[in-house]
Amino acid sequence: MKSGFVSILGRTNVGKSSIINSLVGEKVAAVANKTQTTRTVIRAIVNRQNSQIIFIDTPGIHKPKSKLGDVMVENAFGVTKDADVIVFVIEATSEEIGKGDKLILEKIKEANKKTILVINKIDLVDKAKVAKLIEIYKNEYNFSSIIPVSTVKNINLDVILDEIEKNLNEGPAYYDIEEYTDQTTRQLVEETIREKALKLLQDEVPHGILVEVEKMKKKKTMQNEPIYNIEATIYCLRESHKGIIIGKNGGMLKKIGTYAREDLEKMLGIKINLKLWVKVREDWINKDRFLNSFRLN
User: Fold this and answer.
1) Residues 72, 189 within the same domain
2) CA-to-CA dists, residue 180 to 26, 29, 65, 106, 202, angstroms
């Protein structure tokens, strides 16, 4: 039996969360085509016949523009210290090693851990471009392996697991084989609501969104079916953002709630009664009392 912790690093929007969700076979990380989709460090568990792999999904590396951004980047690099293996994800569409990827490479060299390079989105480019990118990165670091993949086309995803398993040491199972994440149900609900908001809202709004579940109770319906009654608040930075989130006649908020409820019912296997509110918390992304919940212990 082998086991170990795998830190997955990369810039924003390279597809780290999509890769993890595909490998786990369950939705454990929010996915949206927006920067800073992943804010916290999330553990996702893959149980195989001879191994247990614990992925640590980290916030995308970006140039911080707030205290929240600082915390996210600190968290991403912080977890590499305790990882057994690092998976470094880049995009196949890259022409060269950009500033963000250079910074990550420097941290990988400092950590001096077994590192697998994953080149994602190979479905968007030709093979020659991928081959060129492999050569560029081979000259920068002695990677344990380099794996071109596509989450969209489901290409080579199993190869990632095989290569990780090769690089793990013997060890016990840290989690029960039925578990696939260390997130609580409350956290999964908050992340799902935030993901739907990220996908539906204008670019300037999502970065300042915080979702908190206020109430969560399991009850029985009149037909004696179990149901979760969930009340959650979406916090934003400005009064103008509040109007955008609510939308005309409450249309946008209703859409966010409907999409979140549909996802949660599939995920939790239970009917959901979801109520959402929107409130303003001015500049919370720069206030320590709100940011402490994001910091690693």
Assistant:
1) no
2) 7, 11, 33, 31, 32
